[in-house]
Structures are given as C-alpha cells and as structure tokens.
Amino acid sequence: MRCGVVRRGLAAILAPMSKAHQTLHRELTRKKGGSHRKIRNILHELEGLDVLLDKFSAHPRRADKSNDPALDAAIARQQSRMLAIRDKGEVYWNAELDSNAGLGAEYIMMLHFLGIAGQPSFAERQRKIANYTRQWQNDDGSWSIYARGPGHLSYSVTCYFGLKLAGDSPDAPHMVKAREWIRAHGGAMPIGVEQRFLLALFGQYDWAGVPPIPSWMVLLPHLPMLPRALENKLLNIYDLSYWCRISLVPMSVLYQLKPLVRIDERLGVEELFLEPRDQRRWSFAPVSEPGLMSWGGLFNVGAKAVKALEFATNGVVAKVALNKAQKWILDHQDDSGDWGGIYPPIMYNIMALSRLGMPLSDARIVKAFKALDRFMIYHARCDGLHVQACVSPVWDTAWALYALGESGYDIRDTEFQRGIDWLYSRQILRDGDWAVKNPNAIPGGWCFQFYNDFYPDLDDTAIVLQALLFGGYPRGQAGRVEQTRIGLEWVLSMQNQDGGWSAFECGVDKALVNHIPFNDLNNMLDPSTADVTGHVLEMLGHFGFDLGFAPCRRAAEYLRKTQERDGARAGSWWGRWGVNYVYGTWSALAGLAQVGEDMSKPYVRQAVAWLYGVQNPDGGWGEGCETYKEPERAGREISGQSTPSQTAWALLGLLAAGEVDDARLRRGVEWLLTRQLPQGGWDEELFTGTGFPNAFYLNYHFYREYFPLLALGRYRNARCGLKPI
To answer: Is the pTM higher than 0.90?
Structure first.
C-alpha cells in the first residue's frame, strides 16, 4: 500500500525539564515525605522519561493517506465530523449519555421529598422529566435498563411511582399497562434494595423490608497497621467502592432518621402489591438464604441483630454518627457542588442535608442543584428533560484526540492543541479518597467528568496520558513534561497487589463486602479488571516501557491469569466497563502488544481465534448486555446485530495481534466503511457501555464516533507498514 506520512512537526525537540518547571513535582513529593515506595523501586526508569518522550516525538506521525480511496475518504470525513460535533465554541467533547428512565423518576421523587415539586420552576421541570420518562416505556408497559432489553421490575416500579407523583392518572393507558406488567412479574415486594429504600421514605414500603444501613458505619476505623490477614476480616466505608460510599453515607443518615413524607394515598403504589397489606411478610433476606456457616449467613444474622437493636443506637451513638456523617458529606462536596460527579449521590446528599436541618437556600445545596442542572439535556421532540447519570467530557475528549492523532490528523492544528491544553487544565492535584489506602502517593490523576476532584480514575488518566503524547512537548512548554510525569507516577503508585489496576482506588477488593445485605447488586467492590489494566499497559507502552519494566511485567501476568478458560468465552477477557468480552479482549490484547508481548503465544492466538469466532455473518461484531447474566452468549448480541463501537474494538484487538492481511479483518473494515453515514458518524442504538454489570448500562453517544475512527486509522497505519508508537 502506498502511503503518505506526515512528520511530527510540533515535537521535533523535547525541552528538558528546567528547575522552574520541576517545582510542582518536587513540592508534591516533599509533602508526601519523599517518593512513594513503588516509585522508588522504578525511579531509575522514570528518570529517563525525557528520553522516552523524545523517542515518541521522533517517530513518524501516522499515515494521512493510502492507496485505498474509500478508506482515506471515510477517515477524512470522520475527522471533520469530530471537530463539528463538539459543543459550539468549546474545545472539548462531551456526548449525551443514556442510561435509563429511573433517574428522572428519582428526581421527581426527590422534589416531592423536599416539598418543592409545586414551585413553578420545579413543576415545569417535573413535567418535562415525566414526558421523557414516558418515551422510554416499552410496548409491554415496562421500562428496561438498556435498549431492547427485557423489562426491569425495580425500575418499572420506580418509573410508575414517579409518574404518579408527577400527576399521571393510574387509569391512563400507559399506566394500566405498566401496572399489569409489574403485577405479572411479582409486584412491588421483590424490588431491589435502593427502590425499597426510596419507597420507604414515602411510606410505600415497610422499613422492616429494607436492610440496615447504620449511620455508625462512618465511625468504623481504617486500620492499615493491622496484619493483612486480620485487616481483611474488618470493614469500614473505605472498603466500599467510591460510587457506593458517596451514596451510602447520606443514605445511612436517612435510614437513621427514617423521615416519612406523607402523600395523598391516591399517589401511592398500593395497587402494585400482590399481597394484601395484612398478609405481607417483610424481609430483607435474600430469596434463597445462605447457610449459617457462610459469610453470607453470618452477615444476615448480624444484620438482623443490628435491625433488632436499632433502638439501642438511637441515643448518643446516633448523635455522634450523624454529626460525623454530616461532616463527611460536607467535606466531600466539590467546589462545583457535585458529590462524586454522578447523579445518585448528589440527590441523596441533598436529601440528607435537608433532614439534618440545612435549609434549601443554603449555598451548598444551591450549588448541588446547579450541579444536577448540568446533567440535564432537553429533547424538543418530546418536550422532555433527560436526566443523565453523569457527564463524560474528559473521557470523550481524551479518546477523540487520541483517535485524531492515530488517524493522521495534523497535531499542529490549533484546534487539536487547544484540546490538549484543556486536558492539562483538568489534572487533579489534590488528595482524594484514594489516598486513604495509598497515602504516600502524589496526586495527579484525571476524572471522567468536569468536576470530581475526590475521585480521579485510572482509566481516564491512562487515556488522557496517551492523548497528551500526541500533543507533543515543544520548547517553552516544559510544564507539560512535569504534569505528564506527575500523572504517570500517580498511575504507577495505584497498581494493585495482584498486578492489575482497578478503576478508582487500590485495595478495594475485600470479598466480605459481597455478603453485606444491602449489596444486592454485587457492585460495591473496585477490584483489578482486565480492561482498565489493558488500557494502562497500552499507555505505558506508548511511553516506551516494555515487559522489562516491573509494573508492566506484573500487569501482563495478571492478564494471563484472568483470561477466560470456560465455555463460549474461553480465550477472551471479561469487560467490566464496556460490553463485554469483546471490550475486555480488545483492551487486554492492545495492552499486551504495546508493551512487547510475543503475540504468537498460544494464549494470544486463542484470543484472536475467539474474536474471529464471534464475528457476525455481516462482517461486524456485536455483543449484548445480557452476556453478563448469560456468559454462554459471550461475544454475541441476542438478535445478531453488529454495532460500530464493538466492531471497532474487535478490529483494534485483532490489529494489535498482527492481523493486518486476514480477509476476515478486512470484512470488519468494510462493515464500517459501508455503514458510515454521508455526513460521517454511524448509527448505534444498542448500549455498549457498562456502569454496573446486570444493573446499570450506558449508551455513550460518541463511542460510535471516535472508536471507528481509531480503528480505521490504525488499520491504515498497519497497511502502510507503520509500527505502533
């Protein structure tokens, strides 16, 4: 293939770090009492960072043309589209993020809990949210947690109640269908813990059926000085994943206070219960109770004891715990008003603070409502408001810039450099909750959202760092080198003992947590995962580190150990944050290849064979959210549909393994080329992002934009004989 290659113009010479620009790194290290122990062990490699960055800059930039006109045209079209789909006047990318209609219904519930649903501005907001909620209802009357998915009982009850509070008549056809579906699927009794909790606040569910969420859990200490074998048998709030912790603290306040919001009985959900009120047996125990001599059984016994003795903690202990919880809540609010950068904790913290006596006019609550405003998108087609789970500007911008750079876009372009500068401006240089278990690490990560200073994450930081490499390190901008070094050190200090990386914090992986009764979704841990580990490895490989570098070697061993070995998924890797085995397998293969793994090894070839084995007849790839519950469907979508993002992931994994000339890979490329829209972009209705497996899924609207561009760009580079950089 004849190719045109543009030389890297911006980064011809890497400016050494001057003393003036080493100040921040030195000061952060000094405050921590010196270099982190993990950094000290690899300090000699990190001291050569300038040389590694110089090597990256010296590589020929990616191909900008080939002898395949259709391929070149598709890439050029998509590059232009990428610049056009940013918000007007902005330098970052921030796509709409679909999850499910339950969040909007919960917002309506919050308005009624706070007693402000009747205020004109909130009444109008409620009306629009209700409009959007109806749009998500399935033909059978239910609501799903992903496109084309089956009805979800808990969220269907939530949406039904939210619409009743908003004024929908129970006799309206859509409400009749919803009620009939809910009753046909067990009624309101067996709903999830969070939905029970919310209904209990309105007197619609008995607190006897809600597992205890004791406020005194904030008093339990973190004791790292204990022997690990003993410390593993103890729990505190920092043993829970951040996304649970930031919600459970305010929920524990509400559980302790058990406020009752009285509503007109006509707005309640009594009609959703199959059992007459006097025959309901309230229980928070699982349907199939574990044996007594198991952790699950012991936790259930303990939870029942806590429940029975709640009266004994309603005095001094409760007062101390509530004061501690309130302080924790206020200390964890970002300056922007957010808590954790996601919708549920912001809602719960507003509700908890209001019941602790804080007026809604308080500046901290006013800021919190403004934070929620940033999560809302208006849809004129239904005159509705979409309440998003969160926003994703850092994630979207990093992937967009990385895809542009890899596909041969001119990185000297002002728009590209403005995006790079914006990413540098989002680096978080303060400690967050991650420092509880990793206190000696210097801060320096990036978060997913605009604002989430307490919870930067490893996945975003890895993708940002590899995007920054394409931005270059020209003379006069030595501060870029320092910020890169700080971010790199933070990532390396966060490697888990098993060699992998988790999403937000290290060491949040105690198996005991899975047996807590209010952990009905099994989503309260943040262990190492193949996809995050693969992304970190790929980033380290871009920097020039290979398997001779101890962190890379340990991570590669983690990936070898976690490769699937059973049934239809044998040879693949499970995807924690993307659907599912296709996502995990791409991430692992890309990371392994970038750090120099021998891609002819049997376990790698097994992964390649697995990817080819799940290719659809049309040449693309598609995998459904149902594969988390039904792993025997691994790599497949129930209707056989292919998607642009998952086709791109499969191609990226195969290209990493050296599959450039295989006809099957070319069929995947053709699938993308022939389905690109005239103005660029691809259609993608199905959800390919994962929030919590089996519970919460996401449709990132830009996954269909930058991942196909990245795959096509990398394919062109490979066809032009350009090695990965």
So the answer is: yes
